[in-house]
Specification:
The chain is α/β, with parallel strands linked by helices. It contains eleven helices and twelve strands. The protein has three domains: 204 residues, Four Helix Bundle (Hemerythrin (Met), subunit A) (Up-down Bundle), CATH 1.20.120; 91 residues, Beta Barrel (Elongation Factor Tu (Ef-tu), domain 3), CATH 2.40.30; 124 residues, 3-Layer(aba) Sandwich (Rossmann fold), CATH 3.40.50.80. The two termini are 28 Å apart.
Length: 441
């Protein structure tokens, strides 16, 4: 699928999202209208219904359906999930505050001891939602482990949406008719069913397709490559540049999965390699993993992949461990004897921080590969590039005809933001830029 077609499909999914957000709200107004309560009160109610619909759709966005994520990549879909949840929370807060401002007597509903049960459900829904958002934004600052956050995040989401549904049914102003209640109950149940698919059905399927750690290979830059072999099945096919979620040494029902890019060639179907840099609690223990450890892989995912219909040349800009998906692309291109020109710009701290350095240099014998290392802390006598990847550096190294070059960018957030801005300044079309962000949680 070409990048332009992916962009078109992406636009269609956005239209579908808007329709699914506003559709349930439209259903509310079908039929005989209940007694009017004033414009601002009705507008506040509309915001409440729309905000609840947006929350329910989050279960679909996070269900990892490849067709939905394909135009953007799962990383972008999850980024959208985070941002749109904030928007939904703002819409619901506006619903509440607008009601309090225009009808001050409703402030009494905050007294959950004496308030009716429908008001208690609404207040509880907002409290749970704010706690969910706060725990997600400040997880590391609050000292909440990733595993605990994953386990409680879904429960909090179910409570927020479920209590919100109880609230709107309890108010009953627009849902007094039975079929409308059934409609909203159905879409709420569908949202919960998606969560059940992720938490129950998918782990069950993964448990039937285990993998085994065949080796742990040390790499430069304090990174390690896990070599994984399928046990009792043929593994999976993937496109170079994609990633998967790894569950290591425990059951897939334990919800202890972590996303990592695949670094091996897509043509090596007997094993998969995940190259992981020691950065956090989980990744710092990768070097201690013993061969024979059972693992489970959920994937592949991601749209950070080239194809035969791409432009005749590539520019790959990597920072640190961001080289891993590009390594999969380079290895696959080498196995395919792909003749297209590739410019690799690899930014790293020092000479010994360049992961896969020796193999990358050897790949020049098999590919039309031009390499430029950019070091922040170069060794004595270094004659290569230093500092950061800047507009001037990209302008000097890249082909002047950027309309026919595909750019792949992966690395730390600061590098990606700077490079994306630079490429836009150079006039690179958006559909020629592919980004892979590692911040998925």
């Amino acid at each position: 699928m070409t990048q332009r077609r992916l962009w078109l499909e992406g636009v269609l999914w956005i239209v579908a999202y808007i329709a699914l957000t506003l559709g349930p709200l439209a259903v509310v107004f079908i039929g005989d209208a209940p007694p009017a309560r004033g414009f601002w009160t009705e507008f506040s109610s509309a915001l409440g219904f729309a905000g609840l619909s947006m929350l329910g759709l989050q279960f679909a966005i996070t269900a990892r359906f490849g067709r939905i994520a394909a135009p953007y990549g799962l990383d972008i879909a999850l980024q959208f999930h985070r941002h749109i949840t904030l928007v939904a929370a703002a819409v619901l807060l506006a619903h509440v505050l607008l009601l309090f401002v225009t009808r001050p007597e409703t402030l009494a509903l905050l007294n959950v001891i004496d308030a009716p049960w429908r008001a208690r459900a609404g207040v509880a829904s907002m409290v749970v939602l704010m706690a969910l958002i706060g725990a997600s934004i400040w997880r590391e600052r609050l000292g909440i482990s990733y595993e605990l956050w994953r386990q409680t995040h879904a429960l909090a989401a179910v409570l927020a949406v479920g209590l919100g549904f109880v609230h709107v049914v309890g108010v009953g102003h627009y849902l007094s008719i039975g079929w409308k209640q059934v409609f909203w109950l159905t879409i709420t149940a569908a949202a919960f069913a998606l969560l059940g698919y992720i938490r129950l059905v998918k782990p069950f399927m993964l448990q039937r397709r285990p993998w085994r750690v065949a080796g742990v290979v040390p790499q430069r830059g304090d990174a390690w490559s896990l070599v994984l072999e399928p046990v009792g099945h043929t593994g999976f096919r993937f496109q170079p540049g994609q990633f998967c979620w790894l569950t290591l040494g425990t059951s897939p029902f334990a919800i202890r999965e972590h996303p990592f890019s695949i670094s091996s060639s897509a043509r090596q179907e007997d094993h998969v390699e995940l190259t992981i840099k020691a950065l956090g609690d989980f990744t710092s223990r990768i070097s201690d993993v013993q061969p024979g450890t059972t693992a489970y892989l959920d994937g592949p995912y991601g749209a950070f992949t080239p194809n035969r219909k791409d432009s005749p040349a590539y520019v790959m800009i990597a920072g640190g461990i961001g080289i891993t998906p590009m390594m999969s692309i380079l290895r696959t291109f080498a196995d395919d004897a792909d003749p297209r020109h590739i410019l690799l710009i690899y930014a790293a701290g020092g000479w010994d921080d360049i992961t896969f350095r020796e193999e990358i240099d050897e790949l020049r014998q098999r590919l039309d590969l031009e390499i430029h290392y950019v070091l922040r802390d170069p060794p004595e006598g270094w004659e290569g590039l230093t500092g950061k990847v800047t507009n001037e550096l990209l302008d000097d190294l890249t082909d002047t005809d950027v309309q026919h070059v595909s750019f792949f960018v992966c690395g730390p957030p600061a590098l990606m933001e700077a490079v994306q801005s630079s490429l836009e300044d150079l006039g690179v079309p958006l559909w020629n830029i592919r980004l892979e962000r590692f911040n998925l949680v």
